[in-house]
Design goal:
Number of domains: 2
Strand order of the largest sheet: 3-2-1-4-5-6-7-8
Radius of gyration: 20 Å
CATH topology of the largest domain: Rossmann fold
Strand content: 15-25%
Helix content: 40-55%
Distance between the termini: 59 Å
Oligomer: single chain
Shape: globular
CATH superfamily of the largest domain: NAD(P)-binding Rossmann-like Domain
Bound molecules: nicotinamide-adenine-dinucleotide
Number of strands: 10
Structural class: alpha/beta
Order of helices and strands: EHEHHEEHEHEEHEHHHHHEE
Number of helices: 11
Length: about 300
């Protein structure tokens, strides 16, 4: 399975990052964004990120010229018919993703690999829509795509070995480290990340330590780059709550039952960095911990 042509569906946070890296890495890359205004800005947004990287000395002008020539913004899905690999990065809705995969199943060559960047939905369920589940695989990048070194390759119930290996090779060719995981709830990353985050929140509720000290415990004691509460704020507490609710339904033992504090913060609109407050109060990049002990 030689991958030369890549088609990215969705030009939001993740899709544009994946398309950008794919073009920079030598693939003829087409990206389709459904919303017309966002589509019109897409090329400029990607080229702008390249220019900023060049100013910091991270990209050479020749690399930018080459990637620019390899990148196309499409007006529709039709050119996915030529692709060797499709990476879907539309919003996290099973119904929407299944609609996209139904179209891709009809349009794409039988040999094409159809990847989804979903962070929590079942690859097997998405694959059911495509009529070629052996060719459907999770290719889960992390945000920001240019920086985060991991790609989680998720094997659905019917994904073939060849598809898994081709997806892993593609991730490696972008300079990422692939890990191979089964299509279990939360895969490896969301399940472990959420488990740590929820336990940290229960510790805040119990007054075991303050927010900052719980984060420092993992940062300084275990070498984590960022503690679990700050990470939760960055991911978005609403996103964390939604994943916890799904995992709590699908995995036994109550391990993922959302702590009351998390539900309360989300109900108050305190969803973390994007709203300005969660476990920290945010001002741009700077964050000061909320003292929940004052409240109890
Ligand atoms: N943002 C993250 O941190 C992150 C990290 C890892 C994985 N993911 C996953 O990546 C996927 C995309 O997330 P995102 O953060 O980039 O979302 P986003 O909302 O920033 O981007 C999604 C884009 O898809 C477009 N779109 C919607 N329907 C479409 C269609 N039918 N065809 C083409 N484009 C369509 C939207 O207009 C939007 O621009 C989700 O499955 C998400 O769970 C997100």
């Amino acid at each position: 399975m030689k991958i030369e042509r890549v088609f990215v569906v969705g030009g939001g946070t993740m899709g544009r990052g994946i398309a950008s890296l794919s073009a920079l890495s030598g693939y003829a890359t087409v990206v389709f964004e459904a919303e017309a205004a966002a589509r019109a800005r897409l090329r400029q947004a990607i080229e702008g990120s390249w220019e900023r990287a060049a100013e910091k000395g991270k990209l050479r002008p020749e690399a930018i010229a080459g990637a620019g020539a390899r990148l196309t913004v499409a007006e529709g899905l039709a050119t996915a018919a030529d692709a060797d690999l499709v990476v879907e990065a539309v919003p996290e809705s099973l119904e929407l993703k299944q609609r996209v995969f139904t179209d891709l199943g009809k349009l794409c060559r039988p040999s094409a690999i159809l990847g989804s960047n979903t962070s929590s939905l079942s690859i097997s369920e998405i694959a059911r829509a495509a009529e070629r589940p052996d060719r459907v695989v999770g290719i889960h990048f992390f945000n920001p795509v240019a920086v985060m070194p991991l790609v989680e390759i998720v094997r659905g119930r019917e994904t073939s070995d060849a598809t898994v290996e081709a997806a892993a090779d593609f991730a490696a060719s972008l300079g990422k480290t692939p890990i191979r995981v089964a299509d279990a709830p939360g895969f490896a990353t969301s399940r472990l990340g959420v488990a740590l985050g929820l336990e940290a929140m229960r510790m805040v509720e119990e007054g075991v330590a303050g927010v900052e000290d719980i984060d420092r415990a993992m940062e300084l004691g275990y070498g984590h780059r960022m503690g679990p509460l700050k990470t939760s704020d960055l991911v978005g507490l609403d996103v964390r709550l939604a994943i916890a609710e799904t995992l709590s339904r699908e995995l036994s033992g109550g391990r993922f039952a959302p702590p009351a504090l998390l539900s309360r913060l989300v109900a108050q609109g305190k969803t973390g960095r994007k709203s300005g407050e969660g476990f920290y109060r945010w001002d741009g990049d700077s964050a000061s911990a909320v003292d929940f002990r004052e409240e109890s």
